[in-house]
Specification:
The chain has 16 helices and 14 strands. The longest helix has 32 residues, at 239-270. It has a single domain (16-412), classed as Cytochrome p450, CATH 1.10.630.10. 45% of the residues lie in helices and 13% in strands. A five-stranded mixed β-sheet has the order 1-2-10-7-3, with helices on both faces. Strands 4-14-11 form a three-stranded antiparallel β-sheet. Strands 5-6 form a two-stranded antiparallel sheet. It is an alpha+beta fold. It binds protoporphyrin IX containing FE (HEM). Protoporphyrin IX containing FE (HEM) binds at residues 71, 91-92, 103, 248-249, 252-253, 256-257, 260, 293, 298-299, 302, 327, 354-356, 360, 362-364, 367-368.
Length: 415
């Protein structure tokens, strides 16, 4: 199947199974960008039909009109999932004016000054993880996801929230079962993907209910305390909103960064000249990180719903219709990027949209960049030789382009 040419007939743009089997359908997205950038995509196997939006300019136009293009009613289109019904509404599913108020609250904690203080902590978490890989000897094989890409974001998110170390593994399990709910490795026995995700979120809520109660009594310098003390117009925010803050940080911060880290390593393995260039010029790392995020574009799509009849690129969009914003397509847009299908560690400027745009621009973009930068900063100088040691396994998801296994064979230089 993997070698068969991808066509509109054999690949559904919102089927997790197709992404797991074939990876990103760049050939289809390129066709859409060229021939029908705002294209009506009729779903024939159950899920709702939608407008497929594939060019950067249109995604920017949509992102800048959050009252016209809503996040609230539905954020993800998946041909195996009827609706978002039953899922708790987090920051990312809110719309103005509530979203604007809530986002302002978080902005206090995510200011550049506050984040600068994080550098040292994120650096030591990254160092600890890379050191444990390097300690295994100068030659070997590993699953890079298990060794580096998965533990790093878990450690950073758990540490930011204030989750005790012995519970970090729980966060890993909850994100797998939420984002990978339809994946055969994570789906609950006898359950649908939706039931699997809801069960995981229930466990997460129960856990954080206890942690929030503790932090109300014993405040600490962590995000759980910060969320527990949030107020709007002098009134504490409802308890359920404190929990959804915890949920969005766990869910949004893990799988995305994990897949940028794995996908970035894969890109470097597949582009050895770029790897060498970066090893010889580590000061290129900030540019390389942006290129890795553009290249991997871990979020495949988010959905918007039109709040009234409107027009986009001459297409008539009717109130209530869905639009899927395909970020990986926008990040190969020939009108924005020179040679978009070339991976260049020194690409600059790099106006990618992998972190979104406008009202919902990724709150954790800076944290993600730091994680990626520190992971590579310590690992890359030590690599002498590196290659794939087996097939890459991908996640069953139309939301996150996940790498489940990245088997690598390596030789390291002496420290
Ligand atoms: C490479 C890693 C990451 C990628 C590619 C990514 C991507 C995105 C995208 C595309 C959005 C926009 C959603 C929309 O427009 O509807 C978003 C929002 C968000 N991200 Fe990230 N993200 C990453 C890492 C993180 C991290 C590490 C955190 C937390 C520390 C985080 C927290 C959030 C939150 C809270 C939102 C919602 C913002 C809002 O609705 O105002 N993300 N992210």
């Amino acid at each position: 199947m993997a070698d068969q040419e991808i066509t509109f007939e054999n690949f559904n743009l919102v089927s997790g199974a197709d992404y797991a089997a074939r990876g990103y359908p760049h050939v289809l997205w390129s066709t859409l960008r060229r021939e029908d950038p705002v294209s009506w995509y009729e779903q024939t196997d159950g899920g709702p039909s939608f407008w497929a939006v594939t060019k950067a300019e249109d995604i920017v136009t949509i992102g800048r009109q959050p009252e016209l293009f809503l996040n609230g009613p539905r954020l993800v289109l998946d041909n195996s999932q009827e609706s978002d019904a039953g899922f708790p509404k987090t920051l990312i599913q809110m719309d103005p004016p509530k979203h604007t108020d809530y986002r302002k609250l978080a902005a206090k904690r995510f200011t550049p000054g506050k984040l600068r203080r994080l550098h040292g902590d994120i650096e030591s978490l990254a160092r600890e993880i890379i050191d444990s890989l390097l300690a295994e000897g100068n030659e070997g094989e590993c699953d890079f996801v298990e060794k580096v890409s998965a533990p790093l974001p878990i450690a950073v998110i758990a540490w930011l929230l204030g989750v005790p170390r012995e519970d970090w593994r729980l966060l890993f399990d909850w994100t797998n079962r939420t984002i990978g709910a339809n994946d055969p490795d994570f789906i609950g026995e006898g359950m649908t993907g939706q039931e699997t995700a809801l069960q995981a979120m229930g466990e997460l809520f129960a856990y954080f209910t206890t942690l929030v109660a503790d932090r109300k009594k014993n405040p600490q310098d962590d995000l759980v305390t910060f969320f527990a003390q949030m107020e709007v117009n002098g009134e504490p925010i409802p308890d359920v909103d404190v929990l959804t803050w915890c949920l969005i940080i766990v869910i949004a911060g893990n799988e995305t960064t994990r897949n940028a880290t794995s996908g970035g390593m894969l890109a470097l393995v597949e582009h050895q000249a770029e790897l060498r260039k970066l090893q010889q010029n580590l000061e290129l790392l900030p540019h390389a990180v942006e290129e890795i995020v553009r290249w991997t574009s871990p979020i495949i799509h988010f959905c918007r719903t039109a709040s009234e009849d409107t027009e986009l690129r001459g297409r008539k969009i009717t109130k209530g219709q869905h639009l899927a914003l395909f970020y990986p397509s926008a990040n190969r847009d020939e009108d924005v990027f020179e040679d978009p299908f070339e991976f260049r560690v020194d690409r600059h400027p790099n106006r990618h949209l992998a972190f979104g745009v406008g009202e919902h621009f990724c709150l954790g973009a800076h944290v993600a960049r730091l994680e990626l930068e520190f992971a590579y900063r310590y690992l890359l100088p030590r690599i002498d030789e590196i290659e794939l040691a087996g097939p890459v396994e991908r996640l069953h998801s139309a939301l996150v382009g996940g790498v489940k296994k990245l088997p690598l064979r390596y030789k390291l230089k002496e420290a």
